[in-house]
Design brief:
There is one protein chain. The protein is mostly helical. Helix content is 86%, strand content 0%. It has four helices and no strands. The protein has helices at 2-15, 17-28, 33-64, 69-79.
Amino acid sequence: MRDFALFFVSIFSIVNPFSAIPTFVSIVGDLPASARRSMTRTTSVAVLVILGVSYLAGQAVLAFFSIRVASLRVAGGFLI
């Protein structure tokens, strides 16, 4: 359970949905309510799929390119 909480907090801070709200509202602000709901659902599913695939296949991709997790953490720290 601790690992899941750590994973959730890390992903939440990277995705940062609160900072994406103004951008999303500016894109869908003029659309009818049904189109906004549809776009919201599509966007949420796409993000969920991308994060899920990254979570499940991440170790295999890193191993394929011979990248160590420690190196990735350093590079991610520079980016964030």
